[in-house]
Write a structure and sequence with these properties.
Blueprint (H helix, E strand, L loop, with lengths): L17 E2 L2 H23 L19 H17 L3 H6 L1 E5 L8 H14 L4 H4 L10 H6 L1 E5 L12 H21 L3 E15 L5 E16 L2 E15 L8 E7 L6 E4 L10 E2 L4 E4 L3 E5 L5 H4 L5 E7 L2 E7 L5
Parallel strand pairs: 8-9
Antiparallel strand pairs: 1-3, 2-3, 4-5, 5-6, 6-11, 7-8, 7-12, 10-11, 12-13
């Protein structure tokens, strides 16, 4: 007679992988992006340039910490099949022929192929109707996104190490979200570096300076700040002038001079003209804000000269002290 202790164990039901749903993939992508954003904010106070999901890029500076975080996620997906976000929602990216993780070259190729998915977002929506729920990148690289319940506890064959890894992935995602969002405060000021006055019937004061913006944010007790400076060319006249009144500032060494025009109605002068300038004007004042990488800010000391115009008629010139 067989004793209860000799009875064979009851077999656990076999958990079969299924193709991951579109919504599950979206959640995983957002969690991974939160990790990248959180790391970039901790390192530089800003968001990431890269994203493992190619939902879009923010125009901010990269950092070594951001690159390290991105490389870590790529390696985890290449050799473990899951990034932290994918592990939390139970997704693994596997080669269709072997059922194993895709490996480094195929993973990198898949991320590059996501550029095709990003065209009108059609590729990212393709899993909604594709029979194997594949994006274009999955079809090109012959990979499948499969759903397997994540091992939260050492049951159903999971080891304690697998369970700990899942909880660590959840913690990484939670910290990423918390460091990705939070209120920010800012201050702004303008500094005049030099000025001169164009004499005439309508004296015009021209100033060259910097628009300074500082932003700070605090998340989970950590404060990060950023400071940006943009060169500003401004002019003002106390007397009401013509609607055609405007100013041109020329700076730099002879033969390689740059030109900043505060007018959009008249063609720029010969020579190198600053691009991407934001202009505002009225009858008695004008303002041109230059990009942060402008030579007017980066290469100092620099000589400069201003010339005022009424339409295309020059009203005179003036020169201020060198910008330092």
């Amino acid at each position: 007679m067989t004793s209860p202790s000799d009875a064979p164990p009851v077999a656990e039901p076999l958990v079969l992988a299924t193709y991951a749903s579109w919504s599950r993939r979206v959640v995983a992508a957002l969690l991974d992006s939160a990790i990248l954003t959180g790391v970039a904010w901790l390192a530089t106070g800003d968001g990431p340039v890269w994203s493992l999901v190619t939902w879009g890029e923010s125009g901010v500076e990269s950092s070594s910490w951001g690159f390290a975080a991105l490389a870590t996620l790529v390696l985890l997906q290449a050799y473990a099949g899951s990034t932290p976000g994918k592990r939390v929602v139970g997704i693994r990216i596997l080669r269709a022929g072997t059922g194993r993780p895709a490996g480094l070259l195929r993973t990198v190729g898949r991320e590059i192929a996501h550029l095709l998915d990003a065209i009108l977002m059609i590729g990212y929506l393709r899993p909604l109707w594709h029979e194997r729920r594949r994006t274009f990148a999955d079809s090109i690289c012959d990979t499948d996104a499969v759903h397997l319940p994540p091992p939260w506890s050492p049951v159903r064959g999971a080891t304690p190490g697998q369970a700990r890894t899942t909880w660590l992935a959840l913690a990484a995602c939670a910290l990423g979200v918390l460091y990705s969002v939070g209120p920010s405060g800012g201050t702004s000021e303008e500094v005049t570096d030099a000025a001169c006055t164009v004499s005439g019937e309508t004296p015009i004061e021209v100033t060259v300076g910097r628009a300074i913006e500082a932003t700070t944010s605090t998340r989970l007790g950590v404060t990060r700040g950023q400071r940006t400076e943009r060169p500003v060319v401004q002019w003002a006249s106390e007397e009401a002038g013509s609607t055609e009144l405007w100013v041109r500032v020329t700076y730099g060494e002879p033969g390689s001079q740059r030109v900043v025009d505060t007018s959009t109605s008249h063609p720029p002068a010969d020579g190198w003209v600053e691009g991407d300038v934001e202009r505002q004007s009225s009858e008695t004042w004008g303002r041109a804000v230059l990009p942060t990488d402008s030579e007017l800010l980066r290469q100092r000391p620099v000589e400069w000269r201003a010339e005022a115009f009424d339409g295309e008629t020059s009203l005179g010139t003036c020169s201020g002290p060198p910008l330092t």
